[in-house]
Amino acid sequence: GRGAPQHYPKTVGNSEFLGKTPGQSVQRWVPSRSTRRDANSSNEKERHDAIFRKVRGILNKLTPEKFDKLCLELLNVGVDSKLVLKGIILLIVDKALEEPKYSSLYAQLCLRLAEDAPNFDGPSSEIQTSQKQSTTFRRLLISKLQDEFENRTRNVEIYDKHDNPLTSEEEEQRAIAKIKMLGNIKFIGELGKLDLIHESILHKCIKTLLEKKKRVQLKDMGEDLECLCQIMRTVGPRLDHEKAKSLMDQYFGRMRSLMNNKELPARIRFLLQDTVELRENNWVPRKAFIDNGPKTINQIRQDAVKDLGVFIPAPMSQGMKMDFFLESPFMPNRMKLDRETLGGLADMFGQMPGSGIGTGPGVIQDRYSPTMGRHRTNPLFNGHSGHIAPPQQSQFDMGPKSFVKSNQISLRPAQSFLLNKNQVPKLQPQIPNMMPPSAQPPRTQTPPLGQPPQLGLKTNPPPIQEKPQKTNKKPPPAKEELLKTTEAIMTEYLNRKNLTEAVGGVREMKAPKHFLPEMLSKIIVCSLDRPDEDKEHASTLIHALRTDGLITGENFMQAFLNVLDLCPKIELDVPLVKSYLAQFAARAVMAELVSVAELAHPLENGTHFPLFLLCLQQTAKLKDREWLTELFQQSKVNMQKMLPEIDQNKDRMLEVLDGKGLSFLFPLLKLEKELLKQIKADPSPQSIYKWIKDNISPRLHTDKGFVNILMTSFLQYISQELCMVEGDDQLAAPSKEQLEQEKQLLLAFKPVMQKFLHDHTELQVSALYALQVHCNASGFPKGMLLRYFVNFYDMEIIEEEAFLAWKEDITQEFPGKGKALFQVNQWLTWLETAEEEESEEEAD
């Protein structure tokens, strides 16, 4: 039931608390450390309390920047039972409900825990979804959310049934209950986006919210309809696909009929109207309704510059921060003068416009502009009128636009801003370049040299009128005219091969920036049906235009993609158009006009397949294989992602690359297939080492990928040998004979492992990741990972440093890290302690 056991985490804002009758006395929360523990309380309960305290601390610190680090910390707190896992879920859900703005971050956390948290359901469990097997975490999470959903309106209705007006405390509790009700719906939607909650469950929720309940009047359905709008805003775009179109049409048909029903409160009708319009607008929200989820500090700075024209500087030393805000040239003078009256630095920061900007969960952000918002009553801004005095622009003056937009707030100065001339100090540029050029006003009306800028303010400044600048420039030529000129230049160039003349012609065109991609598209298309020599000349012209600064690599990529879109039409006249485009791309890569990664990005998931492979083929043909291999490896492009989704696996990738003559890009892929065969044919260490020396380039011997394959091949061979001998299931506990055989095989391979791993900590970490992935693929048989860790340590194959480096390393490249840490955490703690003791003994 809902009565949580004693050792579940107690949270003040929990739904259990809100479920109590308002009049009932509620016990005040007291920090558990300060309470006198019951003499009979077990160590187990104390340990659980410590875990939950640690989890609360981690959740309070959760931000986008610290996400990966804190996820690992959370997995490492000691999740050793279903009870602890359930407690952690209660805390996460409670946080997500209280802070709906950060739902997406908590949903990402749940996704990570669903993948990496230990599973306490047996493998034979029948609880299954159509997508993937349910884990304990996923099952408990859905159960908790279902409970919250089914009781969504209970806590709000408790207060609505009162005949007497609500007290201020009851009003507050009702508001909290409503926030949590909508927060739960939003959280369900965010989890749906990540496939943690199946679409069928989301549809069931929507149907439940839309249903007309028996003995419930329409006007009392407001809470459900508000929840419906919330779930549609959150996950509607994901549900609105071809298969579910008929269902979605039915939902929105019902919403339209409710929207026009006068029995519903006006607020609910407008909410429904906004949601209906959102779908009609292809789920693109109006700016005012964009959901501002958690952001990194850099994103906040960029948004401030882009949306408000306010530049928030990067962190500076503590001493500089105040000076910047107090003395910077774009601060109003009153702010500079009243330093003493504001009560010190802390008070000044508390009243600074924009100081309310925060990033982490728990930070309350107002809905006004960060530059005005909650500071409207501040005397610095003359709160009764909301005016800001605009100083006249000077060469050092940043102007009023950095604070507010002139069309939103009156620029007429308030009486309190009229300063005596004697009070006005000379403005000196303290940090002249702290604002981006885009945020600076045009520098007009510069006073004569040596004369201070005049800052006396008029009581009635003339109204600001924006007049179009008078220019003598001719209007830019029309698009058709530019295309004709480009075609004429291209025809002339391909006939006479005069590069300088062609570049000069393009320069004289003075084409606007937005036309450059179309111009390049025309250059490419003009040469497609001509001989290869002319195509090469067209590439040379494009590179010459880049060298002269007339075009950029981005312009070329846009042109390349534009021509690709025209391919179906062009193919009727030029069947090999994609091969010819591959030549243009290859030459662009060779000339460093675009990088391999920039070329790959728009072609991911088999878009225009096999164009990307054709580009690589042409590059290898025009340059050489070694140069291309090095360039490709530096690009970090994931080749599997470049194939159609159905072919995105290693075996199929090797097959495709072989067919295109590009397998040389992945020398280790062939090794992966061949090495295990070689070990099976002759498992003696001498033969294995000789085969590696003869077949693998020495420069790959210190490659992490090579070490990963070497270790994986040894582990697969050992596993197969043990299973073949006994014919047992891999997940069953190994017998004494099997354990001994495993140890002997490891000892036999030890010389080869040591040869490639000795004195290379980073390669040893790669070997441990190979072991982690091997155990994960086998379903983490009981004790296997710990057994290998101990054997590697005792046989001196892996050193202490590498074990500890693996523990601290954060990466998503290799699956199963959370489960692996759970299995070996105790042993790693022992190793760390032993190493510290050794260091102390050596010091003595």
From TrEMBL:
Which residues lie within the region annotated Disordered?
1-46, 427-478
Q: Can you say what this protein is called?
A: Eukaryotic translation initiation factor 4 gamma 2
The opening ranks of the lineage are: Eukaryota, Metazoa, Chordata, Craniata, Vertebrata
Residue ranges constituting the W2 domain according to the UniProt record:
658-841
| Domain MI as annotated: residue spans | 481-604
Q: Which UniProt keywords apply?
A: Acetylation, Initiation factor, Isopeptide bond, Methylation, Phosphoprotein, Protein biosynthesis, Repressor, Translation regulation, Ubl conjugation
Q: Mind telling me which PANTHER family this protein's record contains?
A: EUKARYOTIC TRANSLATION INITIATION FACTOR 4 GAMMA, EUKARYOTIC TRANSLATION INITIATION FACTOR 4 GAMMA 2
State the similarity comment: Belongs to the eukaryotic initiation factor 4G family.
Can you cite an annotated GO cellular component?
A: eukaryotic translation initiation factor 4F complex
Record-linked Pfam families: MA3, MIF4G, W2
Is Protein biosynthesis included in the keywords of this UniProt record?
A: yes
InterPro entries recorded = ARM-type_fold (IPR016024), Initiation_fac_eIF4g_MI (IPR003891), MIF4G-like_typ-3 (IPR003890), W2_domain (IPR003307)
Q: Give an example GO biological process.
A: regulation of translational initiation
**Subunit structure, as described in the record:** Interacts with the serine/threonine protein kinases MKNK1 and MKNK2. Binds EIF4A and EIF3. Interacts with MIF4GD. Interacts with DAZAP2.
